[in-house]
Amino acid sequence: MILLVVARKLPKKRPSVLQIISLVLLLVVTLVTVTQLPIVRQFLSFASNPEPANIVVDTQSVLGPMPRPWRNLAQGGEESSWDIKPISGAVAALHPEYIRIDHLYDFYDIAQGTPGNLTFDFSKLDVLLDDIAATGAKPYIALSYLSPNVSDGDIVGQPARYEDWQLMTQKTIEHISGTRGIRDVYYEVWNEPDLFGSWMYYGNKSYLKLYAYAAAGANQARGVQPFKIGGPATTGFYKNWFDALANYAVKNKVRLDFISWHRYSTNVTQFRQDIYDIRQWVTQYPQLEPTIEFHITEWGHDSENNAGYDGAYGAAHTVAAAIEMVGVVERAFVFEIQDGKDPAGQEYWGRWGLLTHRDFGSKPKPRYRALQLLDSIGVQRIQILGRGTYVKALAAKTEDGAFEVLLSNFDSSGRNAEQVPITFDNLPIGKYTVKKDYLAKKDVTEVLNVTEGIPAQIIVPMGPLDVVKVTISQ
């Protein structure tokens, strides 16, 4: 995601104002500008009537294995010397399935020589691939950016020769999916093309051309394990980009295995809504619909540096958004694994990392602890009802028969507090131990006696930005 240090804001979904009083409507009219929209929308969210959570868990309704879309991590281009090996234990503890890397060609010195006369050296990349494997993950490769000897003078510019770009893609896939024999690698064409390089889906600097040559290189790869190629990894969720790429792929019979984008939003339901929207859009392309995948290859609450990433705000958002994605999103890549170094020398500077910079000991932040707590949830997903506006919940059954409910109280203002009732339906009569594991508070243990004819219910106090896992067992 990172190139030098580029600040940006992404558009956010506009909430309904049908029931907002005339004063608020006037405020919207006067303040709706590009820079003021986030402020207006936050104000409107305060003016609405939030629904408190009233959780009901059907202990006998097992929905199947627990989906874990959060088991995907991404690292941006903080520094070319970034090394995952010293933090491999911390990363492995999150059980990642894939680790996404970008800055492939400008950081890892792969393409040697001059345009039209290239050779390839993967030795530097191999060190990273070995370290990714040591965490238990597979690589998710963003084919970006260009090394200076291959570009038109700018690493986010066009290739000097598109034939070289095609060959680079071919050789990269043949090395990772062939020589190294890694199955099911994803190759994502570029990273945020609408930002880094100002690519468009038309005109003289067309992403569609960039994608087509990469896909041609993928088709030419020989002696390789199964892999997938896709894109466009835009800074946000844009229908015009989706339609342009999908239409081009269908019309020109170009391989397109997945669509990817980045989503930064404090509206946690937006992550789920994106998938509902794109699944509707893809029905217009029946050639793609049966097999195409959808990936959010970077996500968080803010695309810019934000102090929330260093504290409880980021932790609560991470869990709440992840809960919203369960059963809906195939892969979502938490951005990012580790902080870059603050030019001002501060340990905490609102960077996106789950861990601090290595100069400060690679310390886990609350978001890291939140992911650990989230991933500790049981193996079987249980039906749950009654999630509220701010309190999101996920229920599971463990291998030893205990029931768990994970709760996150995320309010973008950081002010909401609730006494959350949890009712356990169809819970056998008996005496149970209830344990409440808070992310940032002292754990609480109590006893629940379940008798016939009386609902099995507990109350979970949740302060602003609290995250808690409730376990009920005999």
Count of discrete domains: 3
| H-E string | HHEEHEHEEHEHEHEHEHEHEHEEEEEEEE
CATH homologous superfamily placement of the largest domain: Glycosidases
Helix-and-strand structural type: alpha/beta
Intertermini distance: 47 Å
Strand order of the largest sheet: 17-16-19-14-13-12-1-15-18
From the alpha carbons, calculate the radius of gyration and give it in angstroms: 24 Å
Show unreliable segments.
3-47
For the residues shown, what is the average pLDDT?
91
Total beta strand runs = 19
Task: Supply the number of helical segments.
Answer: 11
Classified by CATH, the class of the largest domain is: Alpha Beta
Largest sheet: 9 strands, mixed
Helix content: 25-40%
Any guess at the CATH architecture of the largest domain? Alpha-Beta Barrel
Beta-sheet strand percentage? 25-35%
The global form is elongated
Instruction: Classify the oligomer.
Output: single chain
CATH fold-level label of the largest domain: TIM Barrel
Overall description:
The protein is α/β, with parallel strands linked by helices and 474 residues long. The chain is built from 11 helices and 19 strands. Helix 6 (162-179) packs across helix 7 (207-220) and helix 10 runs parallel beside helix 11. The two termini are 47 Å apart.
